[in-house]
Amino acid sequence: MEVLSPELIHNIYHFLEPSWHYNLARTCRFIYYSSAHILRRHAAAYKNDRIASDREPSETVKLLNSLSHVTGVEAIEAWHVREYEVWGSRASWDDWQQWRVDSDGAISMESGGNPAIEPERVKTLANMYLREFTFTDTEDHDLARNEIENGGDGFVKMLIISSLPRLTALRFAERERDRHTSLEWMRKAASRSLTASIPWPIGFISLRSVAVGVVTRNLRDSNGATARANHLAILLRLPNIEEVYFRNLDMRLDGDFEDVDDVQDRFQLPGACSSVKRIILDRIKDDSWVFREALLMAPNALEALVIRGHLETADEPMDGDMILVHLGDSPSCQSLRRFTFYRPDYINGRDSRSYEPGLLQGLDNLGLVSLCIQDIINEALGEARNKQSDEEGSVQGMGNDDVSLPHCTNDDFINHDELVDAFVRLLPTSLEVLVIWGQETYEEGEEWFRRGEYEEYETIDDAIVAMMRSGRFGRLKAVYLNPIEEDGTTPREKVTT
Questions:
Q1: Cβ distance 454 to 460 under 8 Å?
Q2: Do 66 and 196 lie in a common domain?
Q3: What phi-psi label fits residue 473: left (phi over 0), alpha (psi between -120 and 50 degrees) or beta?
Q4: pTM for the structure as a whole
């Protein structure tokens, strides 16, 4: 090998994909030392380019240029990108400035000045991709061409995302009034593969995690940018997707949908079509029962579902009971391991604050569950009262006036032991972690769960102890009590340690 000149070795690298560079360098000592400049570039790219973004306009041009080379030294930077961050959407060449994070955490654009890149260079690279890109709709081709000409970056960033060969994570930052143009182009590109049998782009195949609406500041008083249901649907169809975080989901749908089949056809979201394992829905704005059902039926083996309510703009509260009904009927009923609600003010059941705990029984492998204390106590009361009514009917059927009931029949009081027993029986035996919280509300006159209503019967404490001692919950590891009651007196002395 020592007869090869360094120039010839360099030319060999020019025809190799980056994944082969290290193998060639290890061939022998001579080639290894002759490949030092290649290995240094790989080391620098590994250190600096694993997480790329559109924050700096020059970074976008750099990645476009690297992706235009499938082989050789120029392809190294793109090959090392594992995560990509989208900070915002640019609509014109004047917008090709750096994104910045203000003192309050908001994302804004540096003002003034000429574009931080050469527009003609971007046009040349983008149009090169455009000529090779197959559209199912000629109108989309014209839209992409006009966007490139005017300085929009949505199509350009979709090209980057879809072409990065080892991309595993994609994040879209939360920015008010952002149009999510690159996400919309992702939807169009993915739809080609679903409807026209066009092969999936390599970047879409490698993606495992997508987050839409990553927060950079406290948005307590801000609604943030609305995220559309059709974008969530298409992310679930990515070939190897495992986790989706989606913030500010608006389920309101354009058009009339009579049943879930219509939604599945419209959004290309048939049952058991998705490989997703974890779905996190943060601040759901409005509910649609047909899309909700299609969404929960889509995963073929969902392992975790986390939902956070959104009170401020809620027009249609999400039905917590039906979430569990859909999950119980879904392909994920045996695979679901974690089910958690946050900010449950916006998630209401038919006769419960959040959902009826008894509906958990259809999910046989749940390991982590969060529950409202009022819901489980109220359902336990209902179970105990039903049992009491059955016993009253049995006694009356016996016709024996001397037979006395074993407990009080007053609706305001249920036998302590039966209430504890009902509490234990309602929970799935597969539990590993139980989180119990109180009901927070902002309406006057509605308080946290009151100690005096049930604590005087020592139900909460005794029910939790009964869980641990029952032998039904062999995998139980922890019970977390978030604030579930007002401060107040209690008939039981506090335990001090």
A1: yes
A2: yes
A3: beta
A4: 0.88
